[in-house]
Amino acid sequence: EEEGSFEDVLRRCNQMRMPPHFRPLVYQVLLLVVAALCLCVWLVPLRLYPRLVNTACLVRAARNVGANVLMGVLLARELVLDDGFVRLNGTSIAAKLREARDEISVGVDAMRLGGYIASEQLHVSIGADDIGLEAYMTLMYQEGCPWRGNTSCVTPYWHEAQAEGLYRFLRQLCEGMDMLLDKYPPDPAPPYDAGFQWIVPRRERLAAMASDEDLAFVFESQGMDAINGLSAVISVFENEQSTLLDEMHQEIELLISLFIVLVVGVFYLCLFRAALRAAKAEVGKARAFVAMIPAHALTRQDAECIMHFFVPEGADTGGAPPLAP
Questions:
Q1: pLDDT one-digit tens code per residue, 220-243
Q2: Of 268, 287, 289, 290, nearest to 277 (Cα)?
Q3: Dihedral through CA 164, CA 168, CA 169, CA 171, nearest 10?
Q4: Residue 239 gets which letter from DSSP?
């Protein structure tokens, strides 16, 4: 028991005095840290992935609104003319115009507050209003017409439509389409046949387009004012997406740099190389100790054992003869 307890104390003392580069626990901890860094390289940037996807959905929602604005302006014009040039009767044109107007309303709400756009099978998780991008808030809600790049909001029709930002302008545009649907219902006796074999321009409708303020507001610039505003909003979203990608790139670079420093600097230089140097030093001490042992104090078997310890197996001994008995 005394020998066992002495050996245990001696082993513990040796372990306590053992340098860090010889301790297995140090290597185990370091390997765990390396594995954790490998996971962080993947998981830390991944936290930005939902925001990247949501920003792409916001861009798509804004583009969907722009497409429906152009479609609505075209259909509104054809509803008023109702001359059969688009090979659709008034009822079909009115139905498609209502659909475009509804799509504009749904798309704007989804872009602002989040939601689902059924026609695009698109779900916006977080609305741009909740994200709170300063440039976006300015374009959508600041007084005046910030998307025009100047302070001028002069338009010959519906001056109030552009006085409260792009959101108010788009709402007024939808209201203008509603007014056209009420003022110009489908003609029960249009000047074209069912097969559109012959069509006749309606000059009285052309005259109405020049005098009706509601028509003039919807047709102004062929919807390009709204498209320019939405393009500015899309640029804001794309800049936000670029910012997120840059942040992700920087985080990946930082984590990979830490990984390289840990593996090369700590594991290789501080531990592995230090362990090799210490091992060589121990071998030198052992050789020096053996060299101090008197030759007559060793038997032939002891000498051969010591020789085999210091000479690797299969190494060339320089043709030295075996020890004499």
A1: 777 888 898 999 999 999 999 999
A2: 268
A3: -170
A4: H
Cβ 223 vs Cβ 70: under 8 Å: yes
Token pair, residue 79, equals: 């509803």
Give me the pLDDT at residue 59, please: 94
Residues sharing a CB contact under 8 Å with residue 183, sequence separation 6 or more, in sequence order: 212, 214
Beta strands in 109-253, from DSSP E residues, in sequence order: 115-117, 122-124
Percent of the chain with pLDDT strictly greater than 90: 22
pLDDT for 296 beyond 90: no
pLDDT single digits (tens) 59-75: 999 999 999 999 999 99
In this predicted structure, which of 123-127, 172-176, 269-273 has the lowest mean pLDDT?
269-273
- Nearest of 135, 112, 129, 132 to residue 61 by alpha carbon: 112
Mean pLDDT confidence for 20-46: 80
Token match 């497409």: residue?
A: 67
Buried b / exposed e across 234-244, counting CB within 10 Å, b at 16+?
Answer: bebbeebbeeb
> What DSSP letter does each residue of 247-279 carry, written as one string?
HHHHHHHHHHHHHHIIIIIIIIIIIIHHHHHHH
Q: What are phi and psi of 278, to 5 degrees?
A: -65, -40
3 state DSSP class of 123: strand
